[in-house]
Amino acid sequence: MSALPGSPEGTAITGLDSSPVDAAALAELPPLTEQTRVEAREIIGRYPVARSALLPMLHLVQSYQGFVTPEGVALCAEELGLTKAEVGAVATFYTMYKRRPTGRHLVSVCTNTLCAVLGGQRIMDALSADLGVHHDETTADGSITLEHAECLAACDYAPVVTVDYEFYDQQDVDSARELVAALRRGEKPTPTRGAPLTDFRGISRQLAGFSQHPDAAAAAAAVDAPGNYEPTLRGLRLAAERGESAPPMRGPEREPADAGEPRETVRPSGGTGESPGQEAADARVAAADTPAEKAGAAGSHPDAPEPAGRRLPDGRKGTDTPAGQEPGTSGQGPGGSARTIEGRGPKRRK
Ligand code: FES
Fold first, then answer.
1. Measured by CB atoms within 10 angstroms of the end CB, which terminus of the chain is less buried, N or C?
2. Environment class of residue 171 by beta-carbon count within 10 Å: exposed (0-12), middle (13-18) or buried (19+)?
3. Fold designation for 105-200
4. 116 lines ligand 1 (CB under 6 A)
């Protein structure tokens, strides 16, 4: 019989993770203390529903021990009244929660499409060869954990590398090698933009909602630190020069004052019978130069059909889940018993 999920003799977090616990690594960790619990309860106090605090609490325990340990899982479970399996299910879902000891710095190399074609994969391969580690592995000296990452939402700065989630933009193999060499020398190179570099445990503490700055002014100064935003600004300048703008957001649809009247009678009267918003949308579709622009303009037109799956036949919005198959139930169809898990009510996915 396998060990209990989250137990020291079990796996790193739960039975969902097949990697064994490294007993030596666990023995070297600083234990979670009463102070950790005090801070966990402070986090819980920020939310109207206690279990909403789980994500920052996982960052908190990670900030103390460098990864989400069985002890960290147990603390979160105890404080929130959840099972270890429930906490482990969340911790294993998100890649920012680490399942094994993490180095002083986490180096993430974007190997998603745009970064990859511009050299991201070459950077990953070079760092992997230099450090002697592969994805999600840590150097023997504990200085660097290397991972490849999916799109880091900075495609205009490709190829992108982050260290402890701070951005180092437009890297190449040589600059990334120098960046990592500096980290291993104990230096903290200034990120291309955003806050100054800390380390993995430090950023985990910030993600738990605890500032490392002495006061609000220092925190604001760090976040607003000078940076190079040229690629984004270049795009904005080009759009301005070409008179391009993003399609306007569609506001909530209003029901006609009298739902029984024909629709035309409630529109402002005009030459075409259309509202000013519809006429403007018609003009944007007609003026679009490219198929992509035309599709975007048509999609934002007030008369565009509702995308499939967003409107039910009777006009309600939402996903049409058959009765009895809602999340958290037994999954049986109509006529089956619709049990909720441990009587906690339907589970919702984030
Ligand atoms: S593809 Fe690398 S940041 Fe988007």
1. N
2. buried
3. Glutaredoxin (3.40.30)
4. no
